[in-house]
Amino acid sequence: MLELSESNIHLNATATNKLQAIEMAASALEQAGNVEQGYLQGMLGREQQTSTFLGNGIAIPHGTLETRSMVKKTGVQVFQFPQGIEWGEGNIAYVVIGIAARSDEHLALLRQLTHVLGDEDTAAQLATLTDVEKFRAILLGESDAFSMTEETLSLDIETQSLLTLTAINAGKLQQQSAVENSFVSEVVSNSALPLGKGLWVTDAVSGNVKNALAFSRAKTIFNHNGKAVKGVLTISAVSDQINETLARLLDDEVQNILLSGNTQQILTALNGGKVPASPSVQSEDQIATGAVIIGTFTIRNEHGLHARPSAVLVNEVKKFASKITVQNLTRETAPVSAKSLMKIVALGVTQGHRLRFVAEGDDAKQAIEALGKIIARGLGESVSAVPPAEPDTIEVSSEHAPQIHEEKTGLPADAIEAVFMIRNEHGLHARPSAVLVNEVKKYNASVAVQNLDRDSQLVSAKSLMKIVALGVVKGHRLRFVASGEEAQQAIDGIGAVIESGLGEGKE
Question: If both were cysteines, with which of 27, 396, 413, 465 could 203 make a disulfide (CB 3.0 to 4.6 Å apart)?
């Protein structure tokens, strides 16, 4: 990516004609130490050969091949002319990008500008912006986080077909120019991923043009292959700007809003606003007699919840009949069963982390009180006498214990498993996720992956969207399960590409 600092951006500039605009760009490049004196003549010569106007109000004047020797270091200078500059043949340039390139670095800039050149609204915004930080972000495709709009919502559809809901979503995305025909063809033939509660997710590898999400909801719930269907989410993902929205799809409250909320409630929930009130969607096994008690406790063990103290905690939980869940508030994990040793360990609890226990049942109060005491005593280990920064709390709540999905393995007999830690500084955003997916697709094997540190479900490792939705950050452990003819090769290849840094190098 061609570097562009805010100091290289000049907003609200004025020029009487194209010649003066190019002179201003050449002068700025010279002052910045990018070029030698005389580079201007090369820029003018290039303009005489063919216009450097790209479209949507953007021009990129640069030197000729003969003047590359005058480039000291690659760089750009960006000028905004709100009044517009006549660039020939009736074209008006509002953004002029002077380029000094020693080779073909300017081609990278052209690729970065693709999103602007294809969006008239974005280009028009660049012509009038007064905020240099926002100008730079938009120009480089680093603009505001993704947000969902009403145009891609379809509620209360009269259908009993998951395929129909998927097709409606694909059509909506195509209407918004978010996907190409190849996306539509692939997404209707791909298998959907069940999220639970009757919600499903679909996506496609090809034909993604811009970040977008469509949601369609049936008027009445129905079954597909023995599983409930109420709504389908279809995702087009091209950058990590959509990651926060994808992560929200895994939130229990957001899912409830999708199932029963109105248009405004759904948009608010998906766009990160305060989740509005909505009737909760509960199964019978969620509702138990007795009070709901919530306990929030700080782990003071020096080495956190490794195997030994985790086992002590689980054994204590199993003494009580109540349904008890736990989540790591510090890591913002989803609630899991407090009676599962594996799930407790997978929470990744270190010293100082806050755990939230929710107990529902006739002995809920006794359970939470007992857990508070045993955690304070150190779960079989000695702890510091220094009290935690936040006090432990126990409260009575009217909410029901969170719904959890007990793990069902159902793995093939020949399945091969491996766990790898992600060491990329920014986790698995779009670029390293794509590298991982491309590696997996090399092998004749079925490969699933789960994020142990978020206690996610196993999902296909051949889906970019599903990888991104795992919410993997630095230090998270991924469990891969492979089966098929090249299962071992797949695991070995995955381990090697993760070790190499997934295209971002090693630490």
Answer: 465
